[in-house]
Structure formats: structure tokens, C-alpha cells
Amino acid sequence: MRPILTPNPRTAEQNRRLWWLAGQLGIDREAMGEVVLSLTEGRTKHTSELSYMEARELIEFLQQTLAPKGLGTYTSERTDKMPDGYPDRKQLDRKRKGVIKAIFRWFELRGKQPTMEYVKGVACRAAGKDRFNDISIGELTRIYAEFCKKQRTVAAMMPEDFTISMN
Known about the structure:
The protein is mainly α. About 55% of the residues lie in helices and about 0% in strands.
């Protein structure tokens, strides 16, 4: 039987984190299979077949389960939790939206229609982070520039009669 190829599969770092959290919570392979089956709505019971975003959701769930026990905490750099006067709040929000737009546009130029979850997963992998909201302003700037460059490359390869607006 051939393995199911998941687009944007979970990373080795996510796998290590998943099983570390499972160990802390006393979850065995069989129980983890049931959790994964529930998370994927019956698609699979194997962590190896999780997408990047599914693995991220499972890690968050396990961390929230672990937090009341005082064994692990996890904080996020979410703009909605920042005070209104926080100087980087608007800039961070604007850069996140710019990165999402640039990645969507790059996929559009390639004739693909990804989901928001998939686009955020691509950004996370480009930054080496588990969560989109953990990407710093500097990394967002780099990722934005990278995907704008990719857009120009794709546009240069298209026929001249095909007009493209990068705005």
C-alpha cells in the first residue's frame, strides 16, 4: 500500500513536539490515533499523514490540555492581544496581510487556488515557525520580498499578450 501524500506535510520538528506532548500527557499510540482520526474527520489516524496546519492544530490542542497541569505554556504574538497603543501592532498586522496577499498572488499566477490555511502554512514553513502569528516583522518582510520576486519570475515566463498587475 502506497502512503498518502499530504500537501505541505508536517515537519520533523512538529512530529517531535507532538510525541513529546503526548508523552507528557500519557497518550499512547492508540489514543493518539483516535485523536488524529477525530482531528482529520476520519481521513487518517496516523500523525505521519497530517498536513502542516493539522499538526499545528493538534500541537495547540495538546499544549492547551497540558497547560492546566502546569507542565507547559505557550504564548503567541497575536495582534488582538496587544494593547491598542502598541507601536508595532498596526505594522505587524499590515505585514501579515501583505505576506498573505503576496503568497496568494504567486499561487494565482501559477493557476492554483489555495486555501487561507495552506497559504499560512507556506508562510510558516518559509519562516521556520509553527504558528503564523509567531513570525516576526523582519521575517515577514523577508517572506514578502521573496514571494514578490517569485511573482516577477513567473510573470517574466508568461506570454507577452497575458497582462499581469502586481498590485
